[in-house]
Write a structure and sequence with these properties.
- This is ABC transporter permease.
- Keywords: Membrane, Transmembrane, Transmembrane helix.
- With about 120 residues, this protein is an all-alpha fold.
- It contains five helices and no strands.
């Protein structure tokens, strides 16, 4: 029963992600414009160039705000990833830490170093 519910949720999330594919592409393009505007604003030396890149960045920002439905698609993709991990039986962790204890991590790394042969 649990697998069936996970499968149904995955199907719904795939439909949501595919239906918001257009806004996702628009959001990616808008964020690229914002990034380019910021990048070239910093590199620009002239006042006219800086104003041009500010204008391009603002256009990208307005485009990004207008693609709010893309956030629903991003959430659907993240939830689809979480469901995939649950389907495989793995624990889902969004933190980069394996454990909080630094001594345990040191012992793991030390044992890896000791297991390697040195030439």
């Amino acid at each position: 029963m649990k697998k069936l519910l996970l499968l149904l949720a995955a199907i719904v999330l795939v439909i949501i992600a595919l239906s918001t594919l257009g806004p996702l592409i628009g959001l990616a393009f808008a964020l690229a414009l914002v990034f380019l505007g910021m990048h070239y604003y910093i590199k620009s030396r002239s006042v006219a160039g800086k104003m041009l890149w500010i204008l391009i960045g603002l256009i990208g920002l307005v485009m990004a705000v207008s693609n709010v439905p893309a956030l629903l698609g991003l959430a659907a993709i993240v939830l689809l990833y979480v469901l995939y991990q649950k389907w495989k039986g793995e624990e889902v962790s969004f933190s980069g830490k394996e454990q909080d204890d630094p001594f345990t991590n040191f012992e793991n790394e030390w044992s890896k170093l000791q297991s390697k042969e040195r030439f």
